[in-house]
From TrEMBL:
The keyword RNA-binding does not apply. PANTHER family: ALPHA-L-ARABINOFURANOSIDASE 1 (PTHR31776:SF0). Keywords: Hydrolase. InterPro entries: ASD1_cat, GH, Glycosyl_Hydrolase_51. This is Glycoside hydrolase family 51 protein. GO terms for molecular function: alpha-L-arabinofuranosidase activity.
Amino acid sequence: MSKLSVKTKQVRFPVAPDLYGLFFEDINRSVDGGLYPEMLRNRSFEDSIPPKRCTVSQGGVKFTTPLGWSDQFNGGEGLARWMKGFPPTAIPAWYTQDADMRLDAGDTLNDKRLVSLRVFLSPGGSLKNIGYQGMAFKTGAKYSFYMFAKAADRAAPVTISIHADDGTILDKKDLVVNPGAYGRYDCGFVAPKDATKGYLTITSLEASELCIGFTSLMPADTYKGHGMRCDLMEILDGINAKFLRFPGGCIVEGFTKETAMRFSNTIGPVWERPSHMLMWHYRTTNGLGFHEYLQICEDLDLEPMYVINCGMTCQGRAMELFESEEIDDFLREAFDAIEYAIGATDTPMGRKRAAAGHPAPFKMSYIEIGNENYGPEYNKRYQYFYDALKKRYPSIKYISNTHTEKDGLSTEIADEHFYNTSHFFMENIHMYDGYDRKGPDIFVGEYAVNTGEDSATLRGALAEAMFLMGIEHNQDIVKLTAYAPPF
């Protein structure tokens, strides 16, 4: 029989209070259609637009950046495997019956939207959105729909409907879309039965021409009323984590200058937030933005850890460097983000936070300067950002992507990432036993068994647990950890 001895008088070091945290990044379509429960895919009609300065080839199958990195595009559908089982369409997720549709770049909802959707409908013609491989409706659940739209020349009566897998109408509402300027049109639905492959339609009662600028369909019931999906938030809450690292990850870096993450693009009304192409094969409308991440931290009692771009795109994907004034732009973005989080309401960003419904400050505990960046160019930018941020916000803890202390730079916390086989994690249970205790604290910011036959298996999970046991024996230096990705 096994025997476990606990020696309470032999205290080695204090337990790291924030040892276990969460890391969340928009990957695997985990945000739109996931934690952020938008049910309409391509709600801004922009998915089929290639990233700026990128060239599309092979009939839209792939795009290539100016410096030569390529990824799947498939007309905006993303990975080819995501398209299986659905008929092709020129505008991802949207289909017509007895109607024609096209993108219109000249008559958009606002200057942040790249296009609108112009639809020419015959009497009884319809526009359909299939969501993320179908929409799941639950018996008795309520759903909220809105769209910004206008009719071309005269009022257009339309019916908005949600449908079950077999096409049965679950609920419908009639609206009249007026001509002139864009207007917002809202309605709600109640599902009388379950569906797993449902969809939404907009049907015209007579011949009409509509211009639609933005759409949304979401569950009316969200976590604490703050817009996130209840079941997934409850899972995250049950982990009892201490911090949240956001919004990435590689998406912070981007694969071109235009796709690098900027705080300013992720606040304000969602229909006024620019969309952009993510590293992970699809476009986001930034509905889960900076304010929403801070609200998640507050709702789950997590310390915020915000990752900022320091003037570099992803070094593993034909890096582009920002220089001079461009770098200062990113520094200003970082200052603005922090002020938005913790600034008083008489500051410019604090006023914007209050206008968004949160007059009281949020928290901002950690800032990570860059993501998985390294080398001389990173060191230069890291120290520049660290000095400026530390001077203005000395109470925040700052994280480096590498052991910059070895190059003589100010380093409070060093971030280490491990993606490997189960054998790697089992063999490295004692990795931190010999680390220099005079160096910076360690943050294992991303780790997972994601290669080899043990990925997403019990054996892989046990290997990760063994690695964490080694970390728990070294909490005097390893102060933070986060598995990646949670979804």
